[in-house]
Design brief:
The protein is mostly helical and about 230 residues long. Helix 1 (about 5-25) runs antiparallel to helix 2 and helix 3 runs antiparallel to helix 4. Helix content is about 70%, strand content about 0%. Strands 1-2 form a two-stranded antiparallel ribbon.
Amino acid sequence: MNRRTSMALTIALLVVAIAVPLAATSVVPNGAVQEGADTENGSIAPGEQLSAAVGVQDADLEGDVSERAFGLELANAESDEAKAAIIAERHGEDEERLDELEGRLEVLNESREAGEISEGRYRAEVAKVVAEMGSVERRAAIGANAAGELPTDVLSAQGVDVDEIRTLQERAGERGGPDVAATARSIAGAGVGQPTDVPSPGGDDETARDSGNETAGDRGNESDDEGSSNGG
C-alpha cells in the first residue's frame, strides 16, 4: 500500500467514525422537503426523499475524505515539483469526473422527459450529482490556491495551468445551471452542493516570494497592479 492510499484510508476511517453516528440520528437534512410532500410537478414518495438524503450524505462524506486527502498530500509534498505533479494529477481526475457528472445530468433529463423515471427519483438523482459537483468545486479551489503559490516555471513543467483549474472550479460551481441546483434543493435541502471557503494548503506564499521566484499568484497580482497604474 503506497503512502497516498494509506493516508486516504486513514482519513476515511476517521471521517466515517464521526459521520456515521450523526447520520443515524438525522438522515433528512435541514430544509429538505418532508416525506410525501407535494411539489410543483407531483408528489415525492417517502422512499425517494430518503434516497435523496442518503445519497447526498454519502456524496458529501466521500467528498470530504477526498478533499482532506488532497490537502494532506499537498502539505506533505517534499518539493514544489512534487506538489505541482499532485495538482496536475488531481485536476485531470476532477475534469474527467465533472464530464461524467454533466453527462449523468443529460441522461436524467432525457429519462425524465421520456417518462422513464418518476419526478421524485429524478430529483433524488439530481441531488446526488449536484452534491458531487460541490466536491469537485472545492477540490479545484484547493488545487488553484496551492498552484498560485508555486513558481510558474515549476507549474509549466508539470503542465499545470491555474486558469484552467479556476475554469473547472467555476464550471462545477454552476451545479449544472440554476434549474438543476433548484431541483436538488427542492428535495435535499438548501445546503446541498453549496460552495464553502477553502483555506490554502501549505500556508501562505511568503516563502515563495522571499526566494525570489515568481509565483502564479504574484503574476496575477502584478497584472492587477499594472492595470491600476494605467488607469490612474
